[in-house]
Design goal:
It contains six helices and 25 strands. The chain is mainly beta. Among the domains are: about 180 residues, no CATH class; about 60 residues. It has a 25-stranded mixed sheet that branches. Helix 1 packs across helix 3. The two termini are about 50 Å apart.
Length: about 475
Amino acid sequence: MIWLKRIIGWTLRIFAGLLATLVTLTILVIVIGGLSASGSQFLANQIAALISKDNQQITIVAPSPLLSQTLTVERITVADNGGTYATIEGLALDWTPLDLLSRRFTAEKLSARSIRIDRAPEPSATPEVKSDEPFSLPIGIDIAAIDLPSIKAGAALARRDVEIAAKGAAQIIGSNITSQLTATLLGEPSADLAADVLYAPDDDRLRLKLDYAEPKGGVAGSLLQLTDQAALDLSIDGDGAISNWAGKITAALDGRQTISVDATHRLAAEDKRDITLVGGGNFASLMPPQLRDLFAGETAIDLAARVIPGGAIEISKGDLSTAAARISASGQYDPNGINDLALVAEANATPVRLQWQQDKAIYGVAVRRANLTLSGNAQTAALKAAVDLATLSAPQGTLSDIGLTAESSAFDIADRQGPVDLQLAVQSAEFFDAQLANYIRAPLKIVAPLTIEEDAVTTENLTLESAGIGGGS
């Protein structure tokens, strides 16, 4: 599901960038040659330059006259420093160019002969600018039919090469979004997706309907590494007023319901939003192997939170429990105001084991307890965090009985910077490298007064004490 959202999201962003830029260039198109192929290639180059970023270069090849009612583009490529990672071949658009003068993009049909996405893009060095403004495009978009008979995703995205055929329609007018989509995995006709979305805040309406099904050994099952490669069914169903909306999320493996969660959304005074999630099930069966220990047994979720304009969140109830652990959260987080937040995660009996892989190396932790408190004004908040680990393993060795604390009396949570006093204590250590084992022996202790800034972490007096090394630097 994640890679499918990426495919659709990247494709729509490319189309949206092209469409929004066409509005501002309409007059220039007419003057230079929007009705000629040579003028269109020049303009396509300008459009590509405008929508390209520091690590995302767009190339548009062989467009037909841009103001013709049937616009075609032979090829669009998207590349980063690692090379080309996405290609659109044979883009065709049956549209009404003059509608752009009224800030509206209208098309009877949008199609592409093929779309190929080999991998995820490399991260950009320039962070995206976040905005609290509601989603809105500079023009209205109304596409009666979308036909994409071949969307290919590489193994880097889906663990194997897959090909999807998708059809649908989309309308984005102001803040309102309407979309219908059907998709089928070619070669596995029983693997399909149907989605129907309506988001109309001006009319107080929200519809979310999604049904996804795949047979044994399907793409999502392979990504999640489901036990016995089980057949998967996923459903999201909710339709009603945004001000008082309710929906249900369910999942089944091999036809047996595995999870069921009820969700609600209600509008409160001053544009505040109350959200609840209540339900549970056997979440471990849907989790990748690294998280199955945490979600062992039956999982229960009971969440009630209020989302406040400006980024604040009030948690009146936040409980997640499994056979392995309990997680609870309560209080308020406000990046611009007063905070009073508490978070506790604790293993029920034996420590909870978590593993992850990085550059083919396996790392793991066994967690006994973790807690966090945050209080006071956002610019000078008091922060306290503590983690109790039974073990921390890496290719170089294993540390045992680890205590980590971080405290600050004046941390700016809005800009994520300020002083933090860090302490790490390790009671037992076993290294596979004999030289490393000789110099660093447990018990050991590290004390580091840190200064965290927007783009750097510094310390002026780090102290390391161990049976092999003692002193400061």
